[in-house]
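Ticket #238: bound-state structure for 2-phosphoglycolic acid.
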Amino acid sequence: MKLIVANWKSNKNRSEVEHWMDKYEEKLVGSDMSLVDSKLSKEVEVVIAPPMPSLMFVSNRLLNPALKSFTKLGVQDISPYPAGKYTGGVSAYNLQGFNVKYAIVGHSERRRYFRETSQMVAQKVDQCLDNDITPIICVDTPYLLEQLKAISPQSYSKCVVAYEPLEAIGSGQSDDPKHVKTIVERIKKLMPKTRVIYGGSATPKNVNSYLEVSDGVLVGEASLDVGEFVNLVMLCNI
Ligand code: PGA
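RESOLUTION: The complex was predicted; output attached.
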């Protein structure tokens, strides 16, 4: 089962989210159900990670059984702390009841702009796992092994790792699939039961080259336009 994660980052207001979800449903559920049934629910798991204020809206839209079968809800970040006196932090506990299945943690933009350390990322992983949320841990070269060392080995099999080379993110310069293959193998050597996905300028055109060498893709820019994202999902040749 391949994982395709849409990371909208800090884009989209409420009406733009509504438009995206309307079109997503129309294009995937309203069209060829046999395709959705056979391909999507069995071979692909799509994750939508909206900005936090739209979480409840997207969560409600994903109650539609036809969408729910292959589309899950994710968040882009989570507090490293549990429920309690941590003003402004959204704890994993706060997310209970919203059907959040995945949380992206340690994205390079969080490490860079919010000064997140690998230690904080490890705390986030623990918070996710305590609340039945699968963490998608983002790592980049050259610090990949140091970033992963902070994670407790007992957690490895319950996590997803996203390899996201810094120079490929949002640049249109996606990494060479052969290089991605090498990195995925390196991560899997350390964490054999962990799903490893790739992120960085993934598009409908190049998605299959990454699916051949990894367990999925984390998609930023190409997930913002619903038509482009649906194309990417439908073109997955798995
Ligand atoms: P991008 O972003 O697809 O726009 O490169 C990927 C990411 O940052 O997760």
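RESOLUTION NOTES: The beta strands are 2-7, 44-49, 71-75, 100-105, 134-139, 160-163, 195-199, 216-219.
TICKET STATUS: resolved
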